[in-house]
Amino acid sequence: MCTPCTFRNEQVTPINWCIVCKDGLCKHCSNYHKSSKSLKWHDLVPFKDRQSLPEFAQSIQDTCFEHKRQFEFFCSVHQDFHCIKCNTLDHMTCNSVLPLEDVVRNAKSSVAFCHIEDGLNVLLSKFETILNKSEESITNNEAHINHIRKYVNQIKNRINKTLEEAIGEFLSKLDKSKSDSKTKAQETIRGLKEKLNIILGFKASVALLKENGTDLQIYLCLKHLESNLTKEDNNLSADIHNGHYDCEELMFRPTEAMNTLKLVGSIGEIEVQQKPLKVTSGGKGQSVKVVQSPKESMSYKADQVLEVIVKA
Predict the structure, then answer these.
(1) What is the pTM of this model?
(2) Which residues cross the membrane (predicted)?
(3) Residue 62 φ/ψ, nearest 5 degrees
């Protein structure tokens, strides 16, 4: 709204902006501003142009703070803008005072302003490049996940195949061990029964001698009987000592690979790798370049487990 009109409780749309007063002015107040002896030197700009400036530009002090006058000169010694009063009071001895219009002329096409524009373009290109790479990483990760799933399934199939082959071979050995152990046990039992029959026959002879023999006959046979008894007992003790009658018991002892498989608990780990994105750029006219870090390979604990299982 027009600032002077608001003091009169009137709401009037401004058409101009006073750079010195920092006020919006309607048509009537603009005419008064131009005709007033104390205000006519103030520069007015269309209010729409004022509104189109960025906020930081609108807040920049473009008038002399002390005298409230427009800047008219620039002092290279003090590196400041000042009004005509400041020039008379403070810069008479300065030998590098230039008119303001000479300093700011063609500012839009100056090297400094062009450098800012180029820098902004390069900065925007960097952001766009990083944004594109970030979006690409989502697609790339999907591909990586599919690759990992495929790789893990391959590991599972290899482990299953290896286990099936190992289990089949083990069960064949188990059946053979069962058959061999049974055959050996049957042969042992057969031999024991033969020796048992001999002892039973010996016992029957002793019983018959006791029942029908005379004391003299028994006395004369004692040495023979004792010798045969000692012989059979010694033979049996020797066979027991040599393990001829040890019983076989089939047991299962897991291999080191099976124990390792129990201890693993996980087939692998998911690693999140930070791959630095290096964005290089030059000056005006040079494009932004993206330098990607070398792709790192991933390893899984499952490979180690599979290797142990296969070797076992």
Answers:
(1) 0.46
(2) none
(3) -115, 15
